[in-house]
Amino acid sequence: MLSEVKLMFDQIIQFLATGLSIGSTYALVGLGFAIIYNASGVVNFAQGEFVMLGAMSVVGLLGAGVPYPLALLVAIAIVTLVGFSLNKFAIEPARGASVVATIIITIGASILLRGAALLIWGKDIFSMPAFTGDEPIQIGAATLVPQNLWIMGITVILVLGVRYFFDKTLIGKAILACSCNKTAAGLVGINVKLMLLTSYGLSAAIGAVAGLLIAPIAFTSFDAGTMLGLKGFAAAILGGMGSSMGAVAGGLVLGVLESLGAGLISSGYKDAIAFVIILAVLFFKPSGLFGFKSVDRV
Amino acid sequence: MTILQAVNLDKHFGGVAAVTDLSFSVTEGEIYSVIGPNGAGKTTLFNMLCGYYVPSGGSITFAGKDLAGMETHQIAAQGISRTFQNLQVFYNMTVLENVMVGCHMRTRTGLIKAALRLPSVIREERQVREWSLEALTLCGLEHLADREAGSLPYGELKRLEIARALASDPKFLAMDEPAAGLNDTETVEMRQLIQRLKERGITILLVEHNMGLVMQISDRVLVLGFGCLLAEGTPQEVQNNPAVIKAYLGEDV
Amino acid sequence: MNRLKGFYVYAAVVALLPILFPDNYFVTVVGATILLNVILAVGLNLFIGYAGQISLGHAAFFGIGAYSSAVLTTRFELNAWLAMLVGLGLVYVIANLVARPILKLKGHYLAMATLGFGIIVNIILVQESSWSGGPDGLGDIPTLSLFGFDIDTDLRWYGMIAFFSLAAILVSLNIIDSRAGRELRAVHGSEFAAQMMGVDTVRTRTNVFVLSAMFASLAGSLFAHQQAFVSPESFGFGFSIEIVTMVVLGGMASTYGAVFGAIVLTLLPETLVVFEDYEMLIFGGILMGGMIFMPQGLFVFLTQKIRTVLNHRSGPSPKPQDAQKTLECDS
Ligand SMILES: Nc1ncnc2c1ncn2[C@@H]1O[C@H](COP(=O)(O)OP(=O)(O)O)[C@@H](O)[C@H]1O
Ligand SMILES: [Mg+2]
């Protein structure tokens, strides 16, 4: 009896650990959503494709004989460029479009990027080598692979970095100023266009990193980003659209609940859990866990 | 007879007090104006009246009924209508269709009847068209009936909002700055229009910055400053009120 | 009647095509798919195009209709028409239930909620294999029969779907041109002003959501019987987006536009078979490009172009936003 309880307890620890690890990727994807939403009021449905492109680029670069660490950096650079282009060629020309219109534009972008990946890499599923080996490590009751630690570690560093960027640096503050009031920001000499470009680049880079982190334990393919993107969106909404740290918290919460739910209730419904949670939150507290309600002025 | 009564109304947004302890009553059939500098809380008052904002305190009674807890469409059903300072025209429709929406409460056709286009629907459409053209004519817009609303100049859009409100056959019409942005001729036309509405027995709550217009047509005027009632009375009384003069012209006078 | 001139022309074309080309694959097979998609697009257009809302989970209702028919006719041997009605009733109930909380939401939140709903329904179809057949789907669905005639040839299916498709268009046209339709458009134009005119906008949005869900359910039932097979794949997120794309291409707020969108989007993959690998790329490009450069939709864009060419003059009307902007600041 007692050993059963202990077994159960150990299992839960294991679920928590894997949940935090997968939740970290949701957090990063959600953070990407929040950054772009903050800067431009756009929900970027192509965020998941940044993740996919990051991982696929590494696979491609490794295949071309580029050494591993360099491949990681080049992949991030490539995806950042994609982020710039998304802003330049899809968001900027559609300034002033309605919410519904921007949703459709970014959904179009996500399908386009997926289509491009399909052309380049085909339908195969690829694996990516872990950063530092696959030897499982025992931490307390939980067994993790080193990549899990990389995921959580780099997520913490990135989140702190992003926080520092927006709180302390001039560019970060300028981006926030644009999100509050574009006209006023322009008047005080902030280059609004450049700030938008920066946010898209930053968001794409974060997405790419999420891809590099998750691919070694989850494989990758041209459509690997879709579900991840949708869950990142759920994380961002859970945290209250537009709150970066809220999105991070939302991602972690989703990851842990998903892992617990899959382990304790039903693994078949794993992918549904995030959406059940998000629907429940939307129904009962539509502004998200950390968001504020806004009213249109008439 | 009192038709609208506000008692101890309060509204604050976070730390900002937009309306503070405001009480007044409007008599049936009169033109009651609310004036005050920008940010005084006039639009906020309208939004509370229409159920868009929930008052932080106090109550509004219309024709003996407490409006608390009513949704905007239920308040409209009491016979209250309004126009907007920031135009809320249906730009995706023609001028006539805009006004036809105004007839909503006087008609019944729902989705199913509409889908089958029963003869009763066609009859009702004809009636709605008639009512709407009447309202447009009253506002001098009948020649523009089939234009896209988005193609109208600003002054006509303001009158379109009035026509739309009229189509609902209101007892009480709240107008938020109807003459703002109008040139002199248009302002005169607007004044005549408002007077015509009064003659039809509609009680009017008017917010307006054009003092000439306000003083000419109002029966009574309420002066708001920072959300508080500064003065109330006939146009003459208000114009000679020292508190008002101070609020409008500053301490030095 | 003048109001329905376009409809009669369209109906005549739909009726003539199979008479002229009874054995043409593009007419009877692809044509039937087009007509089925027309039902979906015209229905969703009421919600997205006219009422200005967004749904990224509409394939779920298509799926619920299809599975209702499939399960009830194969497992319970219910009459196919009755099964279709049960499906419609089920969708009516489900759509009403989810509408209440979902339609309080707007913009991104509404997008998320409908998307989540669609994904959950799809996962249920995959997981509940005891009745849904799981990922492998359900086969051997009996065909429909009408007055003792089995609908068992491509041509007959074309006729059957054409009937419902035309009915869907007629219903949409009737609604738009009525008090109920103006209600929808008013919600889109300014929700607060609509309320001020006495419109219960929550109810309006609920009703149109339920109605468009029922259009989808009807299409789903037809689809199940026509294919004799259903699997969750046909009702996923991707298909929800495809229906939205049809509406967008058609110009969001034009019934004929939605018809046009359904035609283009169904024909595209058929004609691009040679470019199969490029399908996604092109599809995504159309969505993006269409929305960026022709926010009024390809259909409206083309019809306007044609009109301009035909009568040479047509001064651009001032944009409503400009009028608004000049007055943002109180005088
Ligand atoms: N939705 C809102 N959120 C926050 N503050 C508001 C809101 N609406 C109005 N206010 C504030 O309330 C005060 C009164 O505004 P308003 O009623 O629009 O003034 P007026 O119409 O008299 O110019 C202003 O300080 C304004 O900033
Ligand atoms: Mg105001």
Please describe what this structure looks like.
- The complex is a heterotrimer of chains A (298), B (253) and C (331).
- Chain A has a single domain, classed as ABC transporter involved in vitamin B12 uptake, BtuC (Orthogonal Bundle).
- Helix content of chain A is 74%, strand content 2%.
- Chain A has eleven helices and two strands; from the N terminus they run H-H-H-H-E-E-H-H-H-H-H-H-H.
- In chain A, helix 6 crosses helix 8 (192-218).
- Chain A starts with a helix and ends in a 14-residue tail after the last helix.
- The model of chain A has no long low-confidence stretch (mean pLDDT 89).
- Chain B has 253 residues and is of the alpha/beta class.
- In chain B, helix 7 (184-199) links the parallel strand 7 (172-176) and strand 8.
- The mean pLDDT of chain B is 93.
- In chain C, helix 1 (5-20) runs antiparallel to helix 7 (154-176), helix 2 crosses helix 12 (255-271) and helix 3 packs antiparallel against helix 4.
- Chain C has 331 residues and is mainly alpha-helical.
- Chains in contact: A-B, A-C, B-C.
- The interface between A and C is large, with 45 and 51 residues.
- The structure holds adenosine-5'-diphosphate and magnesium ion (MG).
- The site of magnesium ion (MG) has 3 residues of chain B, from helix 1.
- Magnesium ion is lined by residues 42-43, 85 of chain B.
- Chain B: Pfam families: ABC_tran, BCA_ABC_TP_C.
- Chain B: This is ABC transporter ATP-binding protein.
Helix percentage of chain B? 25-40%
SS summary, helix count of chain B: 10
- Structurally, the number of domains of chain A stands at 1
* Global Rg of chain B: 19 Å
Poorly predicted regions of chain B: none
Kindly estimate the percentage of residues of chain B that lie in beta strands according to DSSP. Answer: 15-25%
